[in-house]
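User: Can you help me understand a structure? I only have the sequence.
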Amino acid sequence: AHLHLPDRKAKALLLTEGKKHWQLVSINEESYSDLQPREGYQRKAPAFQKAPIDLANEHPVYVGTQTKGEVLITPWNWAHLVYSIEDSIAILFSPRKTGG
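Assistant: Let's start by predicting it. Here is the structure, written out as tokens:
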């Protein structure tokens, strides 16, 4: 698993089978810097030396396990790291831009 940086949309993930372990952290300039982006990577697709849980002493980090039938909502400005504890199947709900 690797760290996913937020985009401009909240997302909801319905787990239909299995178990997933989540780490979530709100991203601002300070927490982004504390994740220690690796040299040579851009903000759009960086690689990091730290995981959200490594920031728990400096930033609120939420950790939990999602089980079958539960929905997890990731706010639009939160990075997340997720591990599948068991083989898993999920449905992702993501709003799309409509109108003009």
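Now, to help you interpret it: Residues 28 and 71 are 25 Å apart (CA to CA). The mean pLDDT is 81. Let me know which part you'd like to focus on.
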